[in-house]
Amino acid sequence: MELYTTLESILAAPSSTEKIELFKHFYTAYLRGDVTQENSSSIRVFTHSSYHNFCTVIDPKEIVKRQKLGGVRGQIQLLHSIAHIEYSAIDLALDAVYRFRDVGDEFNDDWLKVAEDEVRHFLMIEALLKEFGSFYGEYSVHNGLFEASLNTMSLLERMAVVPRYLEANGLDATPLIISKLEPLKTNPMVGKIIQALQVILDEEIDHVYRGDRWFRVACERENIHPDVYFEIIERHYPQSFPRKVGINCEARVSAGFSADELKRISLVLC
């Protein structure tokens, strides 16, 4: 089994079931040391997301506003949106290893471990959807995370945008969702959703931390100060900073953000 050709087949898998089965088989072999590397194979730029065959993809502006979390429909919509994030995150982690081939084995180890976490997160959320009688693909989705991968074809930009911006935003948003669900936690399904979100939040801190590590490695490789982060984010997501609302300071510090960065990210001081 060869690393990059196998990752390409996993990334292109036409269904979630096939993708996850292929990944589990591959990752078991990888951990055993039974995977070779041939860096000379060409690197494919994927023109379509791996979920376009079984999800209806629409413009983000057309996404239907989620119903209130107190009702079953709102809870299903919440789970579906999280499932989409986690499924997209599987591809983002795998694509990092597939695309950035000169960084080294530690980089590969880090992002394949992240991919394993994202697979577990997706399966956990998918199981809750099934308990509701729903499934991933029932609702329309957007290509925001897939487009982020297309727009970040350098290690520096990928690490800045995906873990240090998009995933870090999740560190801020997830506690707010949990707080909205807390008054409803006597409902057994809501309790399960809260538990799942807490697992995801705790483990996403580690993912952002790994991204921070490799962002700084990329800065060193290009002899650029880490403050370039703000230039990159402004280029891809204009006027994202500074925010007028608070952020999850504790989680962001654990994930590698400095006090100076936090001051530049949010006007609400940590």
Commentary on this structure:
With 270 residues, the protein is mainly alpha-helical. The protein has one domain: Ferritin (Up-down Bundle), CATH 1.20.1260. It has helices at 3-11, 16-32, 72-99, 105-131, 144-150, 155-181, 188-222, 228-236, 249-254, 259-265. The longest helix has 35 residues, at 188-222. The mean pLDDT is 95.
What's the N-to-C terminus distance?
48 Å
CATH class membership: Mainly Alpha
- One letter per element, helices H and strands E, the order comes to HHHHHHHHHH
Estimated helix fraction: 55-70%
Total count of helical runs of at least 4 residues: 10
Report low-confidence residues grouped into runs of 5 or more.
none
Count of DSSP strands: 0
Q: Could you tell me the CATH topology label.
A: Ferritin
What does the radius of gyration come to?
19 Å
Known CATH architecture = Up-down Bundle
- Strand % is under 5%
Largest sheet composition: none
Mean pLDDT: 95
Q: Mind sketching the topology for me?
A:
Elements: H1 3-11, H2 16-32, H3 72-99, H4 105-131, H5 144-150, H6 155-181, H7 188-222, H8 228-236, H9 249-254, H10 259-265
